[in-house]
Amino acid sequence: MGITDTLSERFDVAEHGSDVRTELIAGVTTFLAMAYIIVVNPAILSEAIVIEGYEQIQVFQMIAIATILASVVATVVMALYANRPFGLAPGMGLNAFFAFTVVLGLGIPWQTALAAVFVEGILFILLTAVGAREYVINLFPKPVKYAVGAGIGAFLLFIGLQEMQVIVAYEGTLVELGDVVATPGALLGVLGVLFTLILWARGVTGSIVIGILTTATAGWVAAIAGLTTPGNVVDGDLYSTFGEQGLVGGLTTLVTEVQFDFTPIAGAFIDGLADVDPVTFTFVVFTFFFVDFFDTAGTLIGVSQFGDFLDEEGELPDMDEPLMADAVGTTVGAMLGTSTVTTYIESSTGIEEGGRTGLTALVVAGCFLLAIPFVALVPLLPDYASFLALVVVGVMMFQGVTDIDWSHPAWTVSAALTILVMPLTYSIADGLAAGIITFPIIKAAMGETDDVHPGQWVLAALLVAYYALQTGGFIL
């Protein structure tokens, strides 16, 4: 039996309507869409993590290694235990909360913040083991479950367009259309999106990967040909390095200068458990817990709907298994020295390419592992090339709105708020909360209280209490 047959049998690839080649392409696609986290996560956390005797760039590279290893562990668990095509990595938003609110804002040592993430992970493991997380997620109203995919799509679209500088900040209206034609990166990004959508519409396999790599190549060609200032379309420092030392010399220099030893941050959470203020520590753990719980729930439901994994009740069969991968990833990530690990919405890019099993996730983990020697080279992929995948998939994910009964007021209100609040608040959790809270209220107003599960009332009440405390400034 060849390796292809072995992989196919191990992951039940044929039974899921896929094949090994498709799974491989899907895994590479998801990795390319997630690869930005190798740079972005350490860029955020290194602002808060300061280690005596080490420069910030060295700390940056330590965190990059920890980010990769945490992603590998969590995604391998997802592949081998859950057999789902979902990639995991330290979550955006949670890393910013870790760095800017907890460490820099509250003055809590970064070791203590890692300890809070570790405790959160242990709690998730315990709750997942007894089925509590799956029970709560299954209480989500149907219209919310069916709207999550489109909500995440709108969120992805919004993030992608901002990162490509197609949408920019504006004081009067918060956002506006950027100077696309005058901004080379934005222009290449828009052309890359259009090119990728054309490939997708024509049914070209690997359209997103092709779009990303073609757009990145176009940027480097534009820089080398002198069509624009290199820094406008590629990493300026990398371009200068290659210009001074040549291709081989530049690659050698960048790889050999990476700080691969990350032991100064690995295990630091143990020191963080000493001398903690119980009240503050509890609030930090709770906030990490709440945001991660609902972000993960929304992501799993959204990408599962996109991949047609949900059953007739809008539930993901054996959801405890991917949830456990998330919990293990968070715990291991804290031990290695990084913030909360969660399932990534970018997994939908690989699912769009046909990924249906854990083999896709295993490929994602393999790509992360292979990236270790090339941590310094990740910037070779310009932001506008990476983020075009989010724009493309964001558009595609709106296909899920056809499952929503827009003629029913309770469905319309909860689904619409779920979709719209996510990008407007920059939070999957806030969008879910809006839909969960309004569904039983509108149902009751229509005299259909018998259709509302008692647990949905409890969940809505808890969310109201949480947001009253949060927006009132009583908790973090």
UniProtKB/TrEMBL annotation:
Any Pfam family matching the protein: Xan_ur_permease
Localization per Swiss-Prot or TrEMBL: Cell membrane
Ranges that cross the membrane: 24-45, 57-81, 88-108, 114-132, 144-161, 181-201, 208-227, 247-269, 281-303, 323-345, 357-378, 384-401, 413-437, 457-475
Listed GO MF terms: purine nucleobase transmembrane transporter activity
Keyword annotations from UniProtKB, A to Z: Cell membrane, Membrane, Transmembrane, Transmembrane helix, Transport
Keyword Cytoplasm among UniProt keywords: no
Coiled-coil stretches: none
InterPro entries tied to this protein: Azg-like (IPR045018), Azg-like_bact_archaea (IPR026033), NCS2 (IPR006043)
Domain of life where this protein originates: Archaea
Topological category with respect to the lipid bilayer: Multi-pass membrane protein
CC per GO annotation: plasma membrane
Family: Belongs to the nucleobase:cation symporter-2 (NCS2) (TC 2.A.40) family. Azg-like subfamily.
Name of the molecule in the record: AGZA family xanthine/uracil permease-like MFS transporter
Source organism of this protein record: Halorubrum alkaliphilum
